[in-house]
């Protein structure tokens, strides 16, 4: 095992804790990649609360958090990330520079926790040791032996896709992004190419897509097309529409797996070892 990818939140737009969303999960976007060198977290939707509990239980002392963008479903779990309140914990935060947000990631997270939005200010999170606002396209080395590449995605206000490489394996985290039918996105293909695992924005189906143009999301069918073109080993269907109940998701899973045997459908709590 080189690294473990764990899905803490797989839903898009809004959390949906209902009896109809039990099998696949209702938490919004949060992924943790545990490498030999350390933990890289992508996004801080509601799933990050449970990740925080696991980090405390395992006695982990440091994490690197990277945001794709700062729409609500990718940040609104952050105030409940318990390790960040511990001054003995060390959290480095990284956010892409976005249209309409010139003051950066610290400003956005501060505003989310200001009165009257939240009773506890960001300053109480004494485990945060740094904030970085980066240009999309940058390359990082969050830990020794770990390389993180970035590329822009098509989404209102912009978003950043990631490709993590370590010890000969690669995974990509590509959400939120809207494709142009018939025109493969070269930025997405760059992040995907030859990856062992790709987590892709599959909010809609091809049938639903025409009525959702401009909303900034893609389809599972486009994910399969891109994954095949890029020589991907496994594709994780991700960022599920909150309207897609367990019944709907089961039907999508059956059709997707039949279309390509490299497909898995992400669920809250799922782990994939690379």
Automatic annotation (TrEMBL):
Keyword Iron-sulfur: no
InterPro entries registered for this protein in UniProt: Metallo-B-lactamas, RibonucZ/Hydroxyglut_hydro
Gene3D superfamilies (alphabetical): Ribonuclease Z/Hydroxyacylglutathione hydrolase-like
Keyword terms, alphabetized: Hydrolase
Pfam families on file: Lactamase_B_2 (PF12706)
Occurrences of domain Metallo-beta-lactamase (ranges): 40-240
GO terms for MF: hydrolase activity
Classification via PANTHER family: HYDROLASE C777.06C-RELATED-RELATED, SLL1036 PROTEIN
Protein name: Metal-dependent hydrolases of the beta-lactamase superfamily I
Species of provenance: Paramagnetospirillum magnetotacticum MS-1
